[in-house]
Write a structure and sequence with these properties.
28% strand, seven-stranded mixed sheet, single chain, Transcription Regulator spoIIAA, Rossmann fold, 3 domains, Archaeosine Trna-guanine Transglycosylase, Chain: A, domain 4, alpha/beta
């Protein structure tokens, strides 16, 4: 059916992961390619016994092919439109597509929705696309049009923010910008809390939507507590803590720009509220001397390890920062601690936190084990998609 596509044949024994529907083909697994191939091309993947395995986008790099279909069917506009329909239906079933209290969510989550190399976040009418593969990027206009057909009047604009996420070796010159419509950065709502989103200048697609349910959980623990939100970025955990009745909230980040955003967001929700203070400081330095100041601490650092060769240093970082929090939090305190590094497994992260507890000499108990919300689904055949690991801990 796809005879015009370049055929990629895998080495013997390298087909097992695809037979288990894992969507990645590593460059070392490829035996031969029959025909010319350019980055971003759709290719067919076969075993060394000439068994069809899947269709995917080819790319130079360690992950050479990202498989988006395990059936030998025609790939056309309607194929991608159906992918979007299925993704939208899932969010609809979660009650996210028509909820004025929460009008921002992840609309499409790469491998979790069968479209490796693409994420889409929805911000109250604006969809922000971020491509991590050349194949998805080359189809960006077609994808934007298909998304508009699926969402109709719910979608006002589509913004492409792939300039910094595409492989740097690719022979393209990506520029961020609108693919459909136009909209200004603005205010969105999450469980009734308001925040400014800047998808042009902000990190990721503009906000960390993936901590939504964990922020809401923190709100339940915040009453009458003194809260430290470390690595606060735009202050999401801070105003959820205030909404939960926190006695005081200190937001700390090494970025002055992040602190400015935090102040803006807190003012949106709690204007002139004396409970909040925003501080520009290095996390490790700040945590050296906070003895008995706080009884609820949030540790949500940026990814300490983006590649496997940084794993050891990352685990040491998690251990150090958690040990400092455990050593100095008040008795009966609560620690929300996270890792968003995909290369740090749930077990490795837990080991680092356990080591930190042992170093502190405190009695520590797990109250909750956290991950990303349901609009960031994990493909059961792709466990790497579970990138957020979190623990809520009670420290005696």
């Amino acid at each position: 059916m796809n005879s015009s596509l370049t055929k990629v044949v895998l080495k013997s024994g390298k087909d097992q992961s695809l037979k288990r529907f894992h969507p990645w083909v590593f460059s070392g697994a490829i035996k031969k390619m029959y025909g010319p191939v350019n980055e971003g091309d759709v290719v067919t993947v076969y075993s060394n016994k000439d068994e069809f395995l899947g269709l995917g986008h080819y790319q130079v790099g360690s992950i050479a092919i990202r498989v988006f279909c395990f059936e030998n069917i025609e790939i056309n506009y309607d194929f991608w439109k159906l992918k979007f329909k299925k993704a939208f239906k899932l969010r609809e079933s979660l009650g996210l597509t028509n909820n004025p209290e929460t009008n921002t969510y992840r609309l499409l989550h790469a491998e979790g929705d069968g479209m490796p190399g693409l994420i889409i976040d929805f911000y109250n009418g604006t969809a922000v696309m971020q491509m991590h593969s050349i194949g998805m990027y080359l189809m960006r206009n077609e994808l934007a049009q298909a998304l508009k057909e699926v969402m109709g009047d719910l979608l006002d604009a589509v913004y492409d923010k792939s300039e910094k996420t595409l492989p740097f070796k690719a022979n393209i010159d990506p520029k961020d910008g609108f693919l459909l419509g136009e909209s200004k950065t603005g205010v969105v709502s999450e469980y009734g809390n308001l925040f400014n989103v800047d998808w042009v200048e902000g990190q990721k697609t503009g906000f960390f939507i993936d901590q939504r349910e964990n922020r809401y959980l923190l709100q339940q623990y915040a009453k009458d507590r003194d809260v430290l939100n470390m690595f606060c970025y735009t202050g999401g955990f801070s105003f959820f803590a205030m909404n939960g009745g926190a006695k005081s909230v200190h937001s700390v980040d090494s970025s002055g720009k992040a602190i400015d955003l935090t102040r803006e967001n807190v003012e949106l929700n709690f204007p002139n509220d004396p409970r909040h203070e925003a501080i520009v400081a290095d996390a490790f330095e700040y945590l050296k001397d906070i003895q008995d100041k706080y009884d609820l601490i949030v540790l949500d650092p940026p990814a300490f390890a983006k590649h496997r060769d940084a794993l050891g240093r990352a685990l040491q970082g998690y251990k150090r920062i958690n040990a400092r929090a455990f050593e100095q939090i008040r008795p009966g305190g609560i620690v929300f601690t996270f890792s968003c590094s995909q290369v740090v497994s749930k077990d490795k992260f837990r080991e680092a936190v356990f080591s930190a507890a042992a170093i502190s000499g405190r009695t520590v108990r797990i109250l909750h084990q956290l991950n990303q919300p349901a609009d960031h689904p994990i493909n059961i055949y792709h466990p790497e998609g579970e990138y957020i690991k979190g623990l809520v801990l009670y420290v005696e």
